[in-house]
Amino acid sequence: MLKRTMSLLLVLILTMTSVVGIASASTTTKETVIKLSDTAVTVDGQEASTSSSAAVFVGASVVYYEDGHDSSYGEGTDSDAHSAEEAAEHKVVTITKPGTYRVSGKLSKGQLAIDLGEDAASDPTAVVTLILDGVDITNTVAPAVIFYNVYEPYSNTEDTKGIVDLTDAGAQVVLADGSVNTVNGAYVARIYKEGTTKKLHKYDGAFYSKMSMNISGEAKGTGELHITATNEGLDSELHLALNGGKVYIKSQDDGINTNEDGISVTSINGGYLYVNAGLGAEGDGIDSNGYLTINGGTIVTMANDRSPDGGIDADSDITINGGTVIALGTRNDASSSASKQSFIELSFATTQAKGSKISLKDSAGNELLSHTADKNFQSLTFSSADLKLNTEYQLYINGVQQQYTGNSFGMMGGGFGGNRPNGDNGQAGQGTPPTGERPEKPEGTPPEIPDGMQGMPEGGFNPGGQDTTVSGEGSTAFVITDSVHSFSGISEATDINDKTKVTFTVNNGAGIQSVASGESIVFEGVTASADVPDSDIQLTVTDVPSENYSETYLLSELKGDYSKIMPKEDGQYRLTIAVVSSNETYTGVSQLQFAIGVLPFTDVKSNDASYNAIKALYEKGIMIGTSSTQFSPNSPVTRATAITTLGRLLDIEQTETSSFNDVVKNSWYSGYVGWAVENGIVIGDGNGNFMPNDNLTAEQMKLIISRYVELSGLDISVDDLFPNTLTGTMTRAELATVLSKLL
C-alpha cells in the first residue's frame, strides 16, 4: 500500500510539472541516495549489497555482444563484438524496487541498470525515478544507463497519432538543478534467443529504455545531460518525452531513436536539446519510427553530412506546435501541415559548409534566425513563435542574400506549369481566359513559370508523369502560407553579384521523362550553358515531399554513370543541378521534377477516393495538372475544360468553329468545342456565346454525356455515372471520377 501511495504521489507531481520540469523530488518523496564509485558504491551511506534481492545491488553481469561466435549467435559483426575480459571490467549497479533514487558519482567502466522484473510492465506502481545529480558513467560494451523492466502505460500496437502523456511511465529521469551528468555508452547488437533467430537482446543507444521514458528537469531546469555514443544516443523502444533540463548528444549514428514502427512517439515539450549525430557513416539527429511531436523547448539538431539523413526524421507525421527548431541535414523529413506553429523548410542547391552563418530576416531587418552551422548541411528546417504566415522574409548565408527556384507548388510554384499533350501551349484542363490573362495570384505567391517552359515534347503525352520543368529564375522573397512551407533550389541571388549565370539541361534538352512502376529513368547527360568545371557542378535528387530519398554527387564523381543518382522506387522526385557556391565565376540552378509510377501532384494522395480515377485519366493524357505539381482536385471545372477532357477521352478529331463569339480560334480548347457543336453535344447561350470560362454543374455535364451516348449508340446508363450526391458545380476530381467510368 505504501508503494502504491508513493507512486501515485509521484505521478501527480509529474502531471503538474510535465512541461516546465518537476519540483525538487527531495521535498516531496523519500529518496534513496546512490553514490557511484570505481571502488565502492554506497546506498544511503552504506556499501551496496551484492544480493539481487536488495533494492540496489552491485554485481550483475553486463549484457554485451560476445566475440568468438558464429552467425547462429546473432547479427553482430566483428566490430560489434567484445571480449569477456573487457565486459568483466564493468561494474553493474542494478535498481530492483520502485522508488526515487538520487544518483551521483563516477563509474569509469560500468552501467546503471533498472530492472523491476518481468511483471513490471503491467504494474502501475513499478515506477523508478532517477534523479541524476552529477553522474559520470562510461561503458565500452553496452549502454551506460538502461531501463529493462518498469511500468509501460501504452501498448506497442496502440497508434496514439503522435500524442502521448508519459507522466505515469515507469522510466522517469530527472536532471537535478545545477548538475552536469555525463553518459558515455556503447550498444549491444542483436543477440538471438538460443536455437532461434528471435531477438533476445538488442540495445542501440548509450542511454536506453525498453519501456517508454520521460525525461524532465528540476524546478529551475538547469540540470545537464551529456551523452556520447558509439552508436545511437538516447533511445526508447516505445515512446520518449523530453520536458526540461538541457540535453546534449554526440553520436556516431542517430542522436535520438524511438523504434516501434508506425507507433513510437518522440515528444519534445520543453528544455534545451542539442544533437550532433551521424559522426560515423550515417545517422539522423532525431529519428522516430513513428511520430515526432514538438510542443516546446529549443531544439538544435544535426545529421550526418554525407549520407541522406536529416536533423529531423520520422516515418509518420512530424508536427511542430511550439518551441524553436533548427534542424540541419542532407535532407530533413517534411513537417506536417497540421502543425500549429509556422515552419519553413529550406533545401539548398548545393552543400553549405561548416561554419556558415545562416540568417533569416523580415522586411524590416529584424533577425528571426541567426545560427552558425557546426557541420556541412544542405537542408534546414526552422520554426519559432516569431515566424509568421504571409510575411516576406529574406535569407542570407554568410551575409550573401539567397534566392529559391522551387517550393511546395513545384518549380517556382506559379500554379500554371502543367504539361500539355501534343505541345498545347494553353492551360489545358484549367480554362485560361481567351485573352491569355492569368487569374490574379494570391498575395505572397511566388513568380509563375515563364510561358513556353512547361510544354510537352512533340509526340504527345508522357505516361506516368509530367515532363520535367527546368527552372532557372529565382525569387528572394520567402513567403510562408498555409500551403507553402518548403523552398528548394536555394542559392545566392543572381542579381547581386558579377558572376555569370548558368543554366543546365539534361538529355540534350529533352528533360527527364517520368516512367511507370518498374521502369528506369533515362538520364544520359548534363549540358551547361557555360564552361563550368564538372567538379563545380553538384547534382542532388530528393523525393517530394522529403521522406526517404536523397543522393548528392558532383558531376565529376559520376564519371558519366548517371544511374548512381537515380531512384528506382515509386515516388515523386526533384533533380537539382547547380554551380557550387564556392565557384567565383559562375552561379546558377536548374531544377527538374519527375515521377516513377505515381502521380506527380502533391495535392492528390494515394488514399483519396478520386486517386485511381485521376491517375487513370492522367496516364492516358486525358486530364493533366494545373501546374507541374498541382492537380487542384477541388477546383471547379470550366465548360472549356469539360469539353476538352471529354474530347481527349474519346480521341476525337478536332475541328475549328465560328459558331461562337467568345471561342478563340486555335486555342487549347477551340478544336474540341468545334467537334462538340458540330455533333450537337453543346449549344451556346443562344446569343452566340459558348462561355468557355463559366463553371460547369454536374447537371450540365450529365446532359453533355447523355447527348454523346445517344449520338454514339453506346449501351451505357448515364445515371450510373452520376451519383445522387453529385450536384452543383463540378470539381476536377469529380469530373475525373465520372469520366474514368467511360474508359
Please count the beta strands (DSSP E, at least 2 residues each): 46
**Poorly predicted segments:** 1-27, 409-470
Please state the oligomeric state of the protein chains shown. Answer: single chain
Could you describe the largest sheet, including whether it forms a barrel? 27 strands, mixed
Note the gap between the termini: 71 Å
How would you describe the shape? elongated
- Assign the structural class, choosing from mainly alpha, mainly beta, alpha/beta, alpha+beta, or little secondary structure: mainly beta
* Averaged pLDDT: 86
Specify the number of helices. 9
Helical content class: 10-25%
Strand percentage: 25-35%
**What would you report as the Rg, rounded to the nearest angstrom?**
31 Å
Describe it for me?
The chain has 743 residues and is mainly beta. Helix content is 11%, strand content 31%. It has nine helices and 46 strands. A hairpin with a 6-residue loop joins strand 12 and strand 13.
